[in-house]
Predict the structure.
Amino acid sequence: MPVPILLVTGFLGAGKTTVVNRLLAHAEGRRIAAVVNDFGAINIDAELIAGASDGVVSLANGCICCSLEGDLLRTLSTLLRRDPKPDYIVIETSGVADPADIVRNLMDPVILREAPLETVLCVMDAATPPSALDDALHRSQLRVADIVALSKLDLADEGAGVRMREAIRAQRVPAVVVDAKHGAIPSALLFPAHVARAPAPRAPGPKRPAEDRFETLSWTSDRPLSLPRLQQAIGKLAPKLARAKGLFETIEQPGRQMVFQFAAGRATLAPGDDAPAAGAPRARIVFIAELGVLSKAELDAIMEACVAGS
Ligand SMILES: Nc1nc2c(ncn2[C@@H]2O[C@H](COP(=O)(O)OP(=O)(O)OP(=O)(O)O)[C@@H](O)[C@H]2O)c(=O)[nH]1
């Protein structure tokens, strides 16, 4: 039996991990393997994904649409040799990935026969300004989608969902558009019951390496962070950031791992489910910015001011 692949795409911070976590939590007995790609050197997403019934494979420090394409195919081959095989494979791309390139790679004859790409899901922040859909990366992520899931409707104003649906239609995207409140999407949409049919032909566009546009900067520390100082630091960095996420302890609550998220200009901090990983630095944060906008020296200077004793 072929193992269908669900490819989850969407811009930086759109809500992909939230969707993947939700569907893993509602696997209803299906054996699901998750492959997670973080653009940065530290794969925060793999730590934020809980409960993949068939394990989480983490691919970090590059993008599976460009520099890690071989790693993706090798990972899929390994998953397909598992006994028992997974029922489904979910691939979460990084937010800078051009899924057209991944779709092209998944057309590898062996992978196509054994693990056909069944569904491409694009997660889209409902509050994204419609004009942003003209951006080449957004367009590419939408164009290959079978389903577009509108996320963060709870944070957007009332008309956002309707506006976004119109903007998607204006891009002539043939996908089904659904609401995904806190990542919830009917699993029947994502995992069709019968997968014997051949996957629909897909037309990937021209190759556009994501790594030409964004860069990722990692910052780690062996000391906990001061929350008020972190707030100041993020205030300074925010105009330059496309995305940031991290795990760290704070001076205010030592021994407790906090999950930091910065997406679409909004920063959040929440207690993590897990204790800090043994041997890991006490603070690990990944920052993503357009190329040349933020230097490592500037980032380090701002972030070092957040740790105790500085
Ligand atoms: N309020 C609200 N927050 C959401 C929703 N979906 C996602 N978020 C939040 O948005 C932030 C980014 O979500 P992620 O799921 O990590 O986004 P992502 O697309 O995986 O991010 P990258 O992989 O870094 O591109 C997190 O703080 C989530 O908790 C939603 O429907 N409502």
